[in-house]
Design a protein that fits this description.
The protein is an alpha/beta fold and 489 residues long. It contains 13 helices and 14 strands. Bound molecules: calcium ion.
Amino acid sequence: MSEQTLDRRSLLQASIGAALAPVLARAQRAGAPPPNILYIMSDDHASHAISAYGSKVNKTPNIDRIANEGMRMNNCFATNSICTPSRGAVLTGQYSHKNGVYTLSDFIDPKKTTVAHLLRDAGYQTAMIGKWHLQTDPQGFDYWNILPGQGAYHNPVFITKEGKKQHQGYCTDLIGDFSLDFLKNRDKSKPFFLMSHHKAPHRAWQPSPKYATWLMNETIPEPDNLYEDITKRGGASQRATLRIGEDFTETDLKVPKPEGLSQRDMRKWAYQVYMKDYLRCIRSVDDNVGRLLDYLDAEGLKDNTIVVYTSDQGFFLGDHGWFDKRFMYEETMRMPFLVRYPKHIQPHTTSNDIVLNVDFAPTFLEFAGQKAPDWMQGRSFAQNLAGKSPGDWRQSMYYRYWMHLGGGHTVTAHYGVRTHTHKLIYYYGQALGKKGAVNKPTPPEWEMFDLEKDPREMRNVYDDPAYAGLRESLKKELARLKDHYQDTE
Ligand code: CA
């Protein structure tokens, strides 16, 4: 980034600060304490499995409460759609190439400053409960109680500063219990920042005994491209082992695969098994969101608490015939983002602004009356939440997945740009020495999608002459974003 760009950025931040200053100044004059922040994040919960986002497969009444009483962000995206890197981006406000968390095999440098340190320094009591998945012990938190790695669904072990302890019960309910315990026993002289991170509904989708038979006699609607002919897509799609049916293990399905089924019938059968367990896991998450909202409402904390519900990324729910994530496709790069803060956000509002996981930390800091440090690459969307989006808000976003062919899913490394209407993806085909990536080159490949005409991303228009002009302008925008975020090949 040139000095000139840095200067522009500083000026921009100063102007954002100036625009919000009256709001904060008013709050300070009134002696209002900074808002509490309850950040609830699940793992692999796609927005198309949330009824507030129009889900066709389930209802999520408690998660929907946040949307009904606040804002639904329609275009919130992960910058690297996989568990550990997305968590790194949320905590640091930086892309993977800046925070060092590129793949599932990376850890966050314990010496690195995160949003938790900055909020604690600003007078918050900070806590992290549930799935951490960044290997090193959490830093910047007054209290933490985390799962080791992925953690277990049933009778899980948790780790605190005091050591490991196994608990009896279902993981999602325990994370709800521990989050409530923290809230009840918190230091009431301070605002709180609580990250309550569910493991669910991550693979292998093991439901609570309470919901083990729920949906048993239902048929989950299939997506329109469950049986897509993947041989008509490019090499990166053909290479990916995310296929519903073929790529499920018995651990995933929990029952043996029926013998003698055609590929299509196997997919049809496996989709139902997979989706029912996935939705059962989500039902427990929804219950526990409700418990936390009930507590805030009963304690009179509703007005001065920002409540966020999100997930570290989205997920394929049979879209393109797939499960899992990683690709820069709509279903997986999109994060649900619902937020309630009655003092600042009108109920039942929506926004189509493009916001990113690297923006979360600057946003929380702004609400806490703090300026985000210059090294954070995201930008606060506090004003966007009040329906006052800055005139120069981003119209495009940069994405990069680094874990070339790794993690057993053989998804090709790629980067790309998404605007409100189009997407350009480049599969550059190399591992670049990253841990967790496989050092086997694949042929470079481009994809381009017209999101207005083809929101399901079924037709690659990269070589379509009608899109030649747009293709070149997207390439320029991609180069600009790469330069802006200081990423290299
Ligand atoms: Ca995840």
